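Limitations
The structure tokens in this dataset are predictions for the assembled complex, not deposited experimental models. Users should treat interface geometry with appropriate caution, especially where small molecules or nucleic acid strands are included. An illustrative entry is reproduced here so readers can see what is and is not provided.
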Amino acid sequence: MIRTEELLLNVGPQHPSTHGVFRIVVKLDGEIITEATPVMGYLHRGTEKLAENLNYTQIIPYTDRMDYVSAMTNNYVLVHAVEKMMGLEVPERAEFLRLVVMELQRIASHLVWWGTYLLDIGAISPFLYAFSDRERILGLFNELCGARLTYNYMRVGGVKWDAPDGWIDRVKTFVKDMYVRLDEYHNLVSGNEIFLARIKGIGQYDVKTAIEYGLSGANLRCTGVDWDLRKAEPYSLYDRFDFDVVVGKNGDCYDRYLCRLGEITQSLRILEQALEQFPGEGDTMGKVPRVIRPPAGEIYVRIESPRGEIGCHIVSKGKAEPYRLKFRRPSFVNLQILPKLLIGENMTNMVTILGGIDIVLGEVDC
Amino acid sequence: MSEENENKPTTEQPAGSAPAEPGAEQATPAQSAAAQPATEQATPAQPSEQSATAQPAAEQPAAEAPRKETDEEKAARRKAAFEAKQAAKAAAAQAAAEAAKAAQQANASAPATAETPAAAAEGAPAGESPPAPPAPPSPSQPRLNRVVTLLRELVAEDAVEESYINEPNDHLPTLVIKNEHWLQSAQLFRNHTELACNYLRNVSGVDYETYMEVVYYPWNMDAREGYCIKVKVDREQPSVASATPIWETANWNEREIYDLLGIDFPGHPDLRRIMMPDDWEGHPLRKDYVPLDPEV
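Predicted assembly:
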């Protein structure tokens, strides 16, 4: 007779598949997960507490370090919230620059996800493809603001740096090349039978569950919900451009994969139009008081980050520092569904499901 | 490269901490206007009384003694301006509060008087110029009135402490709900066919020093409209009924608030610290939090 017993296994905090310092304590019955408890906080830096002693411009670099794969959108949610509170006008050229960098960032972020996700599953070459293309975007950002990852690019009322000569043309070239590369990606991976066997029907949930758990981004859209804040509550200049919200049907890892790759195409479409309409001249900073003091009150502003709804809740008492600053981080909220998805799954699927949610630990822990 | 970039905001905005005294905002344009003629004369760039108030008439031969006086006068003027501003603010706040109360009573009897609540909502965030012209009623006002009526009828007569439209925030209907009625109200928001808020966008906790507040943002995914609900809690023994049985999203958010602000959520299935280590003492986001280890 074979004696069996339950096995308690710690995955992480230093495990490549957790995409950062994240730990899951799984209870295993053979290879089947019977219970999963996520443990986090290893990267908690107390951004919200630190922000209470900083003025708004000083907080911007901290937002870079939350979701460090998508720093531009994080920059935007903060400056957008403050602008909304103060009723500031942003010059058109600045808003165009912001939109262009946000969409480039979305592509870069999805490329990181695509490469690392396939690496998780066991394919090495896609990672090299994705990172070589992402490198081009980081190069463009480097030209624009002198940083590759933590840009500190946006300001309340505009952007810090104007685009250098020829930058717009270089972005245009990139967009053209990226369409071709995206086809290559699909040829390389999307139809691969081994890949499909690993992700089709895995980590499936329905619309009701997704909404119940407050999921957003591709995690929500993969179930068929047409919910993209760029369309639903247009901010910046998104209402000027023609693009589609990519939705899935089955709510499994494969649909999430297709949603994200589809979003790259849509971002490229937005970029094409935005670069075509890009104003040749104009200010990059609006009229902003020397000391930024939003009037007393509170605001909750949300935008669509590559991972979902990123929100910024500011409570102001009319001072130069926020009284309370809370970020609604999409990774943190999306991750809540993980224990539910893991129960009853095979251990090999754990990595597939966790990777499919697309988390960034800097954002989960904040 | 990135480190250099990181340092920028501090060098770029030295003004962030310098004009700490309130009322400096009004003084700055006058100062900059006065500074230019002063430098032409190669005298210390102290704005004189005249230049600060009227046109830059800095050509007048200003003696040493009067200049010192003007400094003091300027300080006095600033103080007076600040006090006046504070008084105006207090008056506006009071007026707004009274108007809000009146509006609530008016809402209960007849929701047709939409002008008063709009004026109240206008007065509260602006905080200045008490005799504000009657603004057009907010497009969200009927929605707010309806929610207040529903809560009064179906939960409790005194369930709603306060209700207003948060205008800068896209006219978001905001309600302050009594702590003891929160759970029932949350169920109403979730289950009532007219509200049907099936999605919870965000949960925040705020420490206001004299009390604490938990802020929920429920959202109706089908009608695409949302609310802001605030629940005030006592600071000594903070406790709010957990919304996790109603919205699963609240689970980790409430754990985070419990961890960082120390608010208890009875009814939560698994209330443990989430960010800080389990043996951590104190709740870091509280305003009076003192780090245990001064070295850190």
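Some entries come with short summary sentences. For this one: DSSP finds 15 helices and ten strands in chain A.
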